[in-house]
Design a protein that fits this description.
This protein has about 325 residues and is mainly α. It is about 75% helix and about 0% strand.
């Protein structure tokens, strides 16, 4: 399809949109009563609700239904809650849940903590822009690219071979034994978490730095006149003032962590007890062909993400209302 054909299709789509809107307005403009307003609102909202039903609700219902069936490719048997029982009792799946819990707890806490500390330390410093650019750079790198970088950092050579991985070379300089960061469980999961923390800390720093700069100067000056400074200023003035932003950052990183897939796939391929729910869904669905267990994992991820999303939306509304 040529560029001209695509442009013509775009123009036609825009004209159809305006035509539909015009028809709706013409059909409802004579309805001046409260009931007429409801009809007009329904006319505009109806197509959107229909698309949400087709694109979101229907797939969700189908996913839940498929999670109650077995692993057969065609006409899978109904197994009820067996897939969920497997997910929470099978040793391999329990390890996946444990790893996911570690990711969800540690990544938001360390990313937000590092971002907040960095934002406070470089605030209004002479080299502030340069310092912020350094920590923000990993945000611009894809997770696959970041994983490849850290895979080289963690690279391990057995015996007396020359180490090309930065982490092991540092251990050599310190006259310590080298270590296989990626293969040795359960610590390898923690080293993979470092990659996402490295990426998300810049995001946290950017949001929190903007919130710190938005703190009114009169509040800061009043606190200083009262003798508040250093740690007390941070604890009693800075943190309470940026609390909505802190919550938004924490919940946003939590949602991203629940969906983490690229890092595990690129570094270990889910081996060495490093799999998480998002990767396990991919493995069960596309590698093992166990669609029943895969959809059960998808339902669990959805259940875990939903309350975090709702809470995040509420906090963002509070932040916008300030």
């Amino acid at each position: 399809m040529s560029t001209t054909d695509k442009f013509v299709q775009m123009i036609i789509a825009i004209l159809l949109f305006y035509a539909v809107m015009a028809i709706i307005l013409l059909l409802t403009q004579r309805l001046r009563s409260r009931a007429g307003e409801r009809v007009q609102a329904a006319a505009f909202l109806g197509p959107s609700l229909l698309l949400i039903g087709i694109g979101l609700l229907y797939p969700a219902i189908v996913t839940v239904w498929e999670s109650l069936h077995g692993a057969a490719l065609f006409d899978p048997p109904f197994v009820g809650l067996d897939n969920y029982k497997t997910l929470f009792t099978n040793p391999q799946e329990v390890t996946v849940l444990r790893n996911t819990l570690l990711w969800v707890i540690l990544t938001p806490l360390f990313s937000t903590g590092i971002g907040l500390a960095y934002a406070v330390l470089v605030d209004r410093a002479r080299f502030e822009k340069f310092a912020k650019a350094l920590i923000f750079m990993p945000v611009a790198i894809s997770m696959v690219g970041a994983s490849i970088i850290w895979k080289f950092v963690y690279d391990y050579k057995a015996g007396d071979k020359e180490q090309i991985g930065l982490a092991n070379q540092v251990l050599v300089w310190l006259h310590l034994d080298t270590y296989n960061f990626i293969l040795n469980s359960p610590w390898n999961t923690l080293f993979l978490i470092v990659i996402l923390v490295w990426i998300q800390a810049g995001f946290a720093m950017t949001i929190l730095s903007a919130s710190i700069k938005a703190i009114p100067d009169d509040i800061v000056e009043a606190a200083r006149l009262d003798g508040v400074g250093g740690w007390k200023m941070f604890r009693y003035i800075t943190v309470p003032s940026i609390r909505p932003s802190l919550i938004v950052v924490l919940t946003t990183i939590t949602i991203a962590t629940l969906k983490v897939f690229d890092i595990v796939q690129t570094t270990t391929g889910g081996n060495f007890n490093t799999s998480v729910l998002a990767y396990e869904f991919y493995f069960q669905n596309f590698v093992s062909g166990n669609q029943g267990l895969a959809t059960a994992i998808a339902v669990v991820i959805f259940i875990l993400v939903t309350p975090v999303v709702i809470y995040n939306i509420r906090q963002m509304r509070k932040l916008e209302a300030r």
